[in-house]
Structures are given as structure tokens and as C-alpha cells.
Amino acid sequence: MKLDEILSGARRNRKKKRVGRGDGSGRGKTCGRGHKGYGSRSGSKSRMGYEGGQTPALSRFPKIGFSNADFRNRYQCVNVDDLQRLFDDGAEIDLPAMVQARLVDEGKGPVKILGRGELSKNMKVSADRFSETARKKITEAGGEAVESRSR
Q1: What letter does residue 7 receive in the DSSP assignment?
Q2: Residue spans of alpha helices (H) in the chain
Q3: Is 68 left (phi over 0), alpha (psi -120 to 50) or beta?
Q4: 39 contacts 31 by C-beta, under 8 angstroms
Q5: Mind listing the pLDDT tens digit for each residue in 66-91?
Q6: How far is 128 from 95, CA to CA, in rounded Å?
Q7: CATH topology of domain 72-147
Q8: DSSP assignments along 119-130, one per residue
């Protein structure tokens, strides 16, 4: 017996907390809001990060460093074994052909061909980038690897 098997459905369909149903319910009278003050009133919600007028932590600490994550290229990856499985011998494979075969999504970024699997078919593959192993496998099978866009 495992802990995750015991508790698998324990918290799943939890009932809504019903407040204001008498003192015996444990949520009567003030309904868990305490006495007086802003938090007891209806419509009381403070925005995220608000610290009651104190300068928030986001403003208190200095902004340092730089992340290049927003500017990196996110490639859609296609492996050689996918090309072997979905395309015929002598096929010319480009972005529209890969979109039609549902290997990539159009407009979701550049395409990179990776070298997982084996390739025995002669194909002309056009993509934005190729890994070294993918380029080697395509050319060894008698095909051609063409980079369609400049880096």
C-alpha cells in the first residue's frame, strides 16, 4: 500500500466552505473574518503584493542582473526517425510539408532537425537548423540538408 494510493481522491471534490450557518458549524457569527476592520467588510481584497502601505518588497530590493530568456530562439524540434516514418523516398521536405504532416505548428518558431533514429530514405530536407548528427544521417542516406533561413 502506498501513500498516494490512499490519498488519491482525498482532496479532489472538496465541498465549498459554507459560512454563516450558526455557532455550531465553527463558521458562525463573524464567519471567519474576525472583528471590524477592512478585512471584515464586503468587497475587501487587496491587490497582490500590497503590504498595507509599507513599501512593497518588489520596490524595496534593487533590480539587478539580466536574463536573456526572453530573447532566445525556441526551436520546434523534428527528429530524423519522424521523417523516415512519415515521408516517402525522394520527398522534398520543407515547412509546409512538415505542417501538413503535423510535425510542427506554422508560426510557432523556427524548425530544427535532430538526429534521433535511423534514416534510410533519400530526402531533400529544408529547415532552419540541423544538428550535426542529423545532417550526417541525411547526407549518408543520399539526401540533402538545406538551411532555409540565415541564423
Answers
A1: S
A2: 3-6, 57-60, 80-86, 95-100, 132-140
A3: alpha
A4: no
A5: 999 889 889 999 999 999 999 999 99
A6: 9
A7: Ribosomal Protein L15; Chain: K; domain 2 (3.100.10)
A8: --S--EEEESEE
